[in-house]
Amino acid sequence: MTLHKCTALTIKRKTSLYLAALLLCSASVYAQDPPCKSKGGEIHVVYPDIAKRMKISGVVRLQLQLTPSGTVRESKVLGGNPLLVGAAQQAVQKAKFEGTDTCIAVFEFRE
Length: 111
Hints:
By secondary structure, the protein is α+β, with helices and mostly antiparallel strands.
């Protein structure tokens, strides 16, 4: 029984350390890149029908690499429900942005 408690404690400590490291890495990603600024105003995102029916809401965060003309060269998912991520990625592909060559786009999906 002592071995079981010790193993559980070790797992909890490792998990806590892993989560702390993950949070620190995430914070540094968000701190380095500025928020994206659209050239044409607000970006129109289509809320996926399946997500609406399943009552899925949440926040999607994308790190965008932009071309000099302001279009999206590449988008990297930083977080969000997979059912919502696709809609956010489609929206940023249609938009034009200003500013730096890398930025963070945040989309909130809710009913």
